[in-house]
Write a structure and sequence with these properties.
- The chain is of the alpha/beta class and 251 residues long.
- It is built from 8 helices and 13 strands.
- Strands 1, 2, 3, 4, 10, 11, 12 and 13 form an 8-stranded mixed β-sheet that branches. A 3-stranded antiparallel β-sheet has the order 5-9-8.
- Helix 5 packs across helix 7.
- The longest helix is centred in the middle third of the chain and has 12 residues.
- The chain is globular and about 50 Å long.
Length: 251
């Protein structure tokens, strides 16, 4: 039951080229930076990533993206990541953009063993009808577009069928974790982390504080250890290394 692994590099040692990854975080909040850096140092490439966004401020998944290690992204937000946008428009990267709530539920459904579900989000748009550019040809044309999805009516309302997501691995970050893999997240850093953890067949969590089993009140557990296979305890320096994306100064 002791799922603690000595180092981040050891924890990701079996992640191969071409693997699919569900990665927690939102902007700079709750991003498993140490595990991502370990993947970068190993040289793993051709990754398919499922995450809300693809890193920010040259951190998180942006490290792998800038190095050309990511082949496909399933996410909700490109935002201010200029390199993400450049690779997408240049045809270097395949991108499936989906509504944020749908992404959250696709991850949760995959982890819960639900193969698909119906949602009204996206009905009447290219999300349901198909035609969203997944890959450009680098010259302004579309090389690969999304296919149409099944639409069905329930009680007079149309819903689109969305597939649950399962990935080979998941990388998440938690504030506290015990040796059995039970995790607690800090406020907004909870974001996509529990959902990403559920979707991974092998889930690896970096924790800012490692505690012994029983130290976390069962009622306080945000993600049960059944969803976590490996735990990496961060050093105090790693745990404290947190950036601020938008710094505002008032007069």
């Amino acid at each position: 039951m002791d799922k603690v692994v000595a180092t981040a590099r050891e924890a990701v040692a079996d992640v191969p080229d071409g693997a699919s990854l569900a990665v927690g975080g939102f902007g700079l909040s709750g991003v498993p930076d140490v595990l991502i850096q370990a993947l970068y140092e190993r040289g793993v490439s051709a990754l398919s990533v499922v995450s809300n966004n693809c890193g920010a401020m040259e951190s998180g998944l942006a490290v792998l993206l800038a190095a050309g290690r990511i082949a496909r992204v399933t996410g909700s937000y490109i935002g201010a990541n200029k390199e993400f946008a450049r690779q997408y428009l240049a045809g270097e990267l395949e991108v499936e953009l989906i509504p944020q709530g749908t992404l959250a539920e696709r991850l949760r459904a995959g982890g819960a063993g639900i193969p698909a579900f119906y949602t009204p989000a996206g009905v009447g748009t290219q999300v349901a009808d198909g035609g969203l550019p997944w890959r450009y040809d680098g010259q302004g044309g579309v090389a690969l577009a999304s296919p149409p999805k099944e639409v069905r009516e329930f009680d007079g309302t149309e819903y689109v069928l969305e597939r649950g997501i399962r990935t080979d691995f998941a990388l998440v970050r938690a504030a506290r974790g015990d040796r059995h893999g039970n995790l607690v997240f800090n406020k907004s850093a909870r974001n996509f982390n529990p959902l990403a953890a559920m979707a991974g067949r092998v889930t690896i969590a970096e924790v800012e504080e490692l505690v012994e089993p029983g130290a976390i009140d069962p009622d306080a557990v945000h993600l049960p250890g059944i969803f976590v296979q490996r735990i990496v305890a961060l050093t105090p320096e790693q745990a404290a290394d947190k950036r601020i994306e938008q710094r505002t100064v008032s007069s």
